[in-house]
What does this fold into?
Amino acid sequence: MKATEAVDWVDPARWRATPAAERLRLLRLVQANIDRHFDELVTADCRAKGIDPANPADAHQVGTSVQRVLVPLPANVAATIDLYEGLVRGRPLQPLAITPAGDGRFDVRLSPRGKDRLLNGDRTDVLRVIGEPRRVDPYAKPGGIVAVLGAGNVASSFEMIRALFVDGCVVVHKPHPLNEDADRVWEKVLRPLVDVHAAAFCPADEGRELTRDPRLSKIYFTGGTGSAKAIMEATDTELVSECGGNNPCVVVPGDRPWTEREIRHQALQIATIVTISGGSICGRTQTLVTSRHWPQRRQLLDAITVALRDLTPGSSTGYPGVDKMFTAFRDAYPGGRIVQPVDARPASQVMVIEDVGTEGFALENEAFCQVMSEVALDVAPDAATFLPAAAQFANDKLLGTLAATILIDEDTRKAHAATVDRAVTELRYGAVGVNTMPPVVWTNPYLIWGGNEEGRAFVSGRGNFGNLLGYENAEKSIVVSGFTSPGHLIMTSKRGWLALSTRFARYAIRPTWPRLFALAVTATRTSFRRAGS
It folds into this structure.
């Protein structure tokens, strides 16, 4: 239906009056539909990305498609079922702990919980809030109509679940033109919500009409900064947006040398996040921040090259326009090293630019493709000196405020706990991962995902998504995991990645004990596969 007809269809008053038990029933219907249409969603996403599910050489890219389309929204549905089960029982879902974080801030520990603790036993997921933690129940919110504008790189708008079940609003969804096929499948999945006039869908070319409809309460948008600014200029409706940026990974010199196994693990984690989905994800690490004087700097950089070339399968870069950005980086840094993965997938070259300096093109632009740069700070290689300097550099010099990562071995983290805590606080980013990469925040319904640019120029967006328990004044998400955690995002096998992604997606859809066991078995088997297999 047209945008105007879609807004006509949804009924905010009816949805606001829908009791928790009925909303819970609808969520369970949607959950069952996701399982039912699993293969259709993957096929639609692969077709949009030019991936051949029948080609064994593309198995890992099919796996990434599975994670891209069948983890974010289903994970939100499963968590929201837990939320509404608590509302129906009259026992609202509670945080795991609340602790003071200094300067009037509090850390609300939210996950992992339930069965997820077995998957991520060494991880702590925290929401940092300013002031005394205060929650707002979904039924205490004013409701309204939200337009959700889907992203181009991800055919799964979990923002719809946030709008419906956390903010209490009805939703009109407009897909990105690249994801219209998947959106038609999602319309079938979400049919129970459409039938009760809580959701509606409109074509990709109806964006102008939809965003200018005066009946909208808010617009949720994921995409480019330029597009977000154009929307804000065209309408007075509040825009909640996530627009990416140049995300740093701060490599903290250890009090002791890293072992070869630790070097290899971190190189694989970095190589995976740099290349997954052809580099076209907002939360990818783009800039490594190191100490020029760290004795193991060269060893780590060489290990990353080996990981990119020999140990992780190549992923094609296919998002429209990224070839031009890749060329722009090559022109700006003709000395940058081009790494070709050993499996020679088309358009899978990675550009590695070492020691780019503390000013210039590589810092001021988001690549959104397979480019990784390194900034070697002229700072002493000890945590107490380096980490504050690196945090200040990341705040002052890099584009955007979306997500930052700190890599620090366990011994050094324990010895410099106060320094690490201070850096996490001072990093002006919406998500901070200690020994883990930002996508774990993006897929976590309990945390927030978005920029952290209060009082700064618009780059990574305004507001945030997620926040299942409805905390006010949320400032950032913080995830801490083990230095070489088995839960890290590491891709070393094509068939193994596909199998692991499929099991993980099935578990995200419906987190049962049999699916958890199947995931654990697959993860164990995958760890023994190699990049070419």
